[in-house]
Structures are given as structure tokens and as C-alpha cells.
Write the C-alpha cells for this entry.
Amino acid sequence: HGFKHQTYRVLPAASSLCCIPPSSSSSSSSSSPNNKMARRGMVSRAKKVQMNSTLPDDVAALVQKHAMQPQTSASLQTLMKTGRGELLSKTYKEESLSETFHTKTATKRILLQVASFLRRELPIRLAHRIQDLDCVPLMRDMPSVIKVKDIYAQSLLTLSSMPKIHTSAQEEDFANSLETLYQRHSNVLIQMAKGAFELRAAVRDGQIKHARTKTSGALHFEQMEECHDFLDRFYMSRVGIRVLAGQYLALRQPPLENYIGMICHQTSPLEIVRHAVDDASMMCCRKFGDAPEVIISGRLDLTFPYIPTHLHYILLELLKNAMRATVEHHGVDNHYPPVRVIIADGNENEDVVIKVADEGGGIPRSHVKKIWSYLFTTANPSIQESMMTFSGDVDHSVDSPLAGLGYGLPISRSYARYFGGDVSIMSMEGYGTDAFVYLTRMGRSREPLPV
């Protein structure tokens, strides 16, 4: 494309284990205090929705019915065991699991088991989010948010009308319907980002008076806590819904080596970093004509069970930010210090930790909280306007306008937290920024399901 070829160094030499699959459409007691509080929260929200809902009465009743049921959380290990058929004995107790059971017959029963679970679980999760979309102050009235609520409501109606799954034919019908819904939801992040843009415009134009401070009249989007909490819940739930649906749909495809559905049990951080470097460099070169070198060091032979697409998205976001900051701080056509990626792990470590370090000038301490805000952005107005006309159907592509809207970091953190990890930022203003990705090694953490 006429761009300068991007290079990166790996210190020292390491094995090459490529774990990114080909592109595709990709317990506590019920009486515990936490569960009682969660139940009270569900009842309270259900009453609030009844009073304020903009949904048709029949849809509102269906939403309330499903939202009163508890969600069932999963872990990475549970998804892997289910995909291998290790939990079939809990469903088919009367049958023994023989050596020949884990063949084509087992695959059919695995799919029946997973499809039956999703037929029950997905309407519950969708109902919780519809209630949230119907209640959230300010954002609920934004046209793009209303569209998202309509998508969720239509999906709930579709899944609720599906019959119980007892045969392979019924399972196939369910899979076809779910794949259609999966595609329909593929650009929900873009729609919600449009909703945030509409909210900013409404506040800026004075349509939402109380979002301004009483003194200076300055806008403080990052202080709109209810909207932030709502968006955290929404995106965490969306990650979970797409993992469950995507894992099931991937199990129906011909198996890939080292994969169980969309989970690679030998995910190589080194190879994920290499792919993310290539993508981030292309994006940086497209904008600036050049990109810094990336030096990778640390535990380069490490592999562990994870969803490679999640890790790729997180690292792409961090590397993209590091490269952009480096080029902008040092100036185009000048010598750039390298971006450094360090992979750390040990036999006794509870986490795999990946650090992305740059010398891009750092972030002022007063801005650190803002980088986690969905409603604060320093993006050029032209980038924000381009998002409103973007018609793509995939959120996470290198062409997506999300790349410049400040959504990347908080959503990356949601991906990491989904399986018990985290993302944190340490910055030295005037020098650079260190970003840390923490990923749990054992995969036992259960989903942090929002109520």
C-alpha cells in the first residue's frame, strides 16, 4: 500500500505457535446475602420498568418474566469441559460414557446440551439488558440506543418462540436462528457509540440542561456515573452473550487444531502480539506514514487456554495507542523510540501479565480517569461524524470508526475482566505510559454477570 514496512524484534528467539483462527463470523448458595441483594435489585428494576417502560405491553410482560429469573454464569474451564463432552454425564445420567462415546454421537449430544442451555439462558440475559436500556437516564431517549433496544427485544421474541430442543433437527433450526441473531448484533458497539455521540450533542446543544455543572457550565461527561455504570453493565453482558453464542456456533464448525470451539487451549501471547503489531502498524502507517518498531521480550514460549480474538483486541488497542502517542510526541519523520512488549509468567504466578510500554509523552494525571470513560473523547469531530454515517456490520475491524472514539480502553478492560483479568494504566507525564494486561492462568473465574 505504499507504507513503510513495519518491523519488530523478538528477544530472544522463540517458538512459533500461531493460535489465531481464520476469520469467521465469529457458585454460591441462593440464600447468600449477595444473591438476596441481587434479587431485590431485579425486583426493584422490574417495578421501575413497569412504571417507565416504552415497550409494548406484551413485550414488557415477556421481558419482566425472563428478567425475574437468575442468570447462570460460566467459566473458561466450564466452556472447555462442555465442548469436550466432559459434562454430558450430568445431562445423560442413565448412560455410561464409554471410550467410543466421544465421537460423532457425543458431538450431537454436546450440541443438544449447549443449545438447550442457550435457549433458556439467552432470553434471560437479553431481558436484563432490555430493562437496563429502558431505564437508563438520558441515554434511553437517544435514537441509536432505541434501535439497540429494538434489536434486543426482537431477539428476545425470536428466542422465546423457539420450541424445546430434543432432536438434531430442532437443534439445527435453533442454530440457524441464533446465527442470524449473532450477525444482527455484530455492530451493536457502533450503535451504542452513536448513542453516546447523540447524548454529547444533546448536552452541547442545551437539550439536556442538568448535565451541565451549576457553576461554569462546562460539560463533564466523564462524571455522568449512572450512564457509565449502565455502559459497563451493558458491555460486560454483551461480551458474555457473544461468547456463549459464538462458542456454540464454533462447536458446530469443523474443528481447528488446538481449539475447542472459539477457545484455543494453547494460546500463544507471542503470536497474538505479532498479529496485533501488524494490524496496529498498518493503522499507524495509514494515518502517519510510519510506525515505531516493537520489541517483544519475556516468556516467549508461553501458551495457555484463552480466546485469542479477545486477547488480540486488547493488545491491538494498547499497541495502537502506544504507536500513535509515540509518533505524535516525537513528530513525523523523526527517530522513534521503540514500543516494548514484555510477556511475564511463572509456574507459581496466578496471572499471565503482558506489559506494553511506550515513550509517547504520557498522560496528565488529571486525565487518567477520563481514559476509562465511554462518554469522553478527544477524537477529531470529523472522526465522530464519520461514525454516524458508518454502515459496516462489524464492530472490531481496522476500518471501524470505534478506533478513534476512545471506546477501546474501557471495552478492552471489559474483555479482560470477563474471565477474571484486568487492564491497568500507569503513566509518567512527559515521558511515556505503561499498560498492563492481567489474564488468569487457570480459567476458573466465573463471569461477573451484571444484574
